[in-house]
Write a structure and sequence with these properties.
The structure is a single chain. By secondary structure, the protein is an alpha+beta fold. Helix content is 34%, strand content 34%. The protein has 7 helices and 8 strands. An 8-stranded mixed sheet has the order 1-2-3-4-5-6-8-7, with helices on both faces. Strand 1 and strand 2 form a beta hairpin. Helix 2 crosses helix 4. The two termini are 25 Å apart.
C-alpha cells in the first residue's frame, strides 16, 4: 500500500482538484488554518503564524516521500485556491481499515465540496486500496462534519466518550463508518 501512496493519485470532482499539497499552498493553508472557526472542531490548534503552517506542510511532504501520508489538498477549480485537505489519517493494512479526516475553509462550508471530496476518497479506498472499512470521527457538536459523513453513506455507530484529548480537555466523538458491502451494494 505504501507504494500506491508514494504515487498519490490526483483526482478531479465537479468543483475540485484533489492533489498533493506543495509550498505554493502555504498562504492558502494558513488562511483557513488560522481561522478559529475552522480549527474549533478539529484536534489541532489554530495556526498562529506561517511557521506553524510550514511545519505542518513539511510533515506532510515528508510523508509523501516515505509513502506514509495519504493527504490531498482540495483546490477549488473556480479560483485555483487551496481550500482544505482530506486524508486517510490512519491506515491499518492488516485490518484493511482506514480513518478519514478533513478540514475545509469557512467560506466553502455548506456547498457540498467536502461531500464531493470524501466520496472520491472513499471510492479510492474501496476500489483501489481494497479496504474493508472506512471510518470517521467528529466532535459531537460538529454537525457539518456529521452531515458530510451521512451524505457519503456512512452509518452512525455511536458516541465514544472522552475518546480524544485535545486543546486541554477530553472530547466525546461521534463514530461513523462505511464497510465495503455497503459501498458496493449502492
Amino acid at each position: 500500500m505504501n507504494e500506491l501512496l508514494k504515487g498519490l493519485p490526483h483526482f478531479e470532482t465537479k468543483h475540485l482538484y484533489l492533489r498533493k499539497i506543495n509550498v505554493d499552498d502555504l498562504p492558502d493553508m494558513f488562511a483557513y488554518g488560522s481561522n478559529a472557526n475552522v480549527s474549533k472542531h478539529v484536534s489541532w490548534e489554530t495556526h498562529q503564524s506561517l511557521a506553524d503552517t510550514k511545519t505542518f506542510m513539511e510533515i506532510i511532504v515528508d510523508g509523501y516521500e516515505q509513502g506514509t501520508k495519504a493527504l490531498w489538498g482540495l483546490e477549488l477549480k473556480a479560483t485555483g485556491k487551496l481550500v482544505g485537505t482530506i486524508d486517510f489519517v490512519t491506515i491499518q493494512e492488516r485490518h484493511r481499515k482506514a480513518e478519514l479526516g478533513y478540514v475545509l475553509s469557512e467560506e466553502c462550508w455548506g456547498k457540498g465540496y467536502m461531500t464531493e471530496a470524501a466520496g472520491q476518497i472513499i471510492s479510492f479506498g474501496f476500489e483501489e486500496l481494497q479496504l474493508e472499512r472506512i471510518q470517521a470521527r467528529c466532535f459531537v457538536e460538529n454537525q457539518g462534519s456529521e452531515r458530510v459523513m451521512e451524505k457519503v453513506g456512512m452509518s452512525f455507530e455511536g458516541i465514544m466518550r472522552n475518546a480524544m484529548y485535545a486543546k486541554g480537555e477530553f472530547h466525546d466523538l461521534k463514530m461513523y463508518a462505511i464497510v465495503s458491502g455497503d459501498y458496493f451494494s449502492k
